[in-house]
Design goal:
mainly alpha
C-alpha cells in the first residue's frame, strides 16, 4: 500500500517523464536573467531598483489586458461582465501601491551611488503606463513624442490615444440605453481629453438617486470610482517615495521631479462621478 511519503515524492516528476515543467512554463530562465545591473562594481541596491520596476511593468501589462477586456464588454453593452474585471484591476493597483514601501527601504545615500547609470531613463518613457493613462482618459498627445525612438511602440501608444477611453465607452453605452448623454460627450475627437459637463452630473444623480432601477450603470460607476481612487493613491505614494529618496532633484528623464508629480495628482479621469457626490441626497437638480 502506498504511504503518504510516497505520494509526496511522486509530485516532483522529472520533465522527461512529465513533459512541460514549472520553470519552462514560466520561462524562468529569461525572467530571472533579465536583471542586469549597470553599476561597476555592482551596487547591492541596484537589483532592488530594477526588480521593483520590472514587477511594476508586469502588473501594468495585466492592467492593460483587463482594461481592454472591460472596454470591449462595455462596447457590446455587457456591463455585468466588467464588474469582476474592474475589481481585479483595483486589487492589482493595490499591489502597485504597496510596492513603493519596498523601494522606500532604499535610502538617498544608497541611491545616489548608482543613479548615474540610469542616464536619461525615466518612468515617463514607459509605454504601458502611458497606455493605461490613455485608456482611463488622461489623453495628452504631447506625451507621444517620448516614444519616437521606436516606430512600432509609437504606433501602439498612438492607437490607444485616438481610441475611446473606458469612460468614453461607458458614456456611449449610456447613450445607447436612452440616457440623456450630451452629444458633445459621444461625438468627438477621442484623442482629446474629456471635458467636465454639468449635464452628466444631473444624469449620474438620477442613477444614484434610484440605484435599484439603474443597477448595472450604478454598479459600473462605483467600479470606475474604485479604479480612479486607487490610481490617485498610487500617484500620491509615487510622489512621496520620490520625495523621500531624491528630494527635489530633477528627474532622470528631464522632468522637474517632485513638482511634476505633484502637478498630476488630483487630475480626475471621471470627474462627474466625483462631482455628483456633492449633489446626492439633495433636491437641487440645477
Amino acid at each position: 500500500m502506498e504511504n503518504s511519503t510516497d505520494k509526496v515524492k511522486a509530485v516532483a516528476v522529472p520533465r522527461s517523464k512529465q513533459g512541460l515543467n514549472y520553470p519552462a512554463y514560466l520561462q524562468l530562465d529569461r525572467l530571472l536573467g533579465a536583471q542586469r545591473p549597470l553599476s561597476s562594481p555592482p551596487h547591492h541596491d541596484e537589483l532592488l531598483f530594477i526588480i521593483q520596476h520590472q514587477v511594476a511593468e508586469l502588473w501594468m501589462k495585466l492592467i492593460l489586458h483587463e482594461l481592454r477586456a472591460a472596454i470591449c464588454y462595455i462596447h457590446t453593452d455587457e456591463l455585468n461582465r466588467c464588474f469582476k474585471i474592474l475589481a481585479r484591476v483595483r486589487l492589482i493597483q493595490r499591489q502597485l501601491f504597496e510596492q513603493w514601501g519596498v523601494l522606500e527601504t532604499l535610502t538617498p545615500s544608497e541611491y545616489v551611488q548608482f543613479r548615474s547609470v540610469l542616464g536619461g531613463a525615466s518612468g515617463l518613457q514607459s509605454p504601458q503606463y502611458r497606455m493605461i493613462e490613455y485608456l482611463l482618459g488622461n489623453k495628452d498627445a504631447g506625451r507621444l513624442e517620448v516614444f519616437e525612438y521606436d516606430e512600432a511602440v509609437y504606433r501602439q501608444v498612438r492607437e490607444v490615444l485616438i481610441s475611446p477611453s473606458i469612460y468614453d465607452e461607458f458614456l456611449c453605452h449610456l447613450s445607447r440605453q436612452g440616457y440623456a448623454v450630451p452629444a458633445v460627450c459621444v461625438e468627438r475627437d477621442w484623442s482629446q481629453p474629456h471635458e467636465r459637463n454639468e449635464d452628466l452630473v444631473t444624469l449620474f444623480k438620477a442613477i444614484y438617486d434610484n440605484p435599484e432601477h439603474h443597477w448595472d450603470a450604478y454598479a459600473l460607476c462605483e467600479k470606475l470610482v474604485d479604479v480612479e481612487e486607487q490610481f490617485q493613491l498610487w500617484r500620491f505614494r509615487h510622489m512621496k517615495t520620490v520625495e523621500r529618496i531624491i528630494g527635489y532633484k530633477q528627474g532622470t528623464g528631464g522632468s522637474s521631479g517632485v513638482p511634476f508629480l505633484k502637478q498630476v495628482i488630483g487630475k480626475s479621469f471621471f470627474p462627474e462621478l466625483f462631482d455628483v457626490r456633492t449633489r446626492i441626497g439633495t433636491d437641487d437638480d440645477s
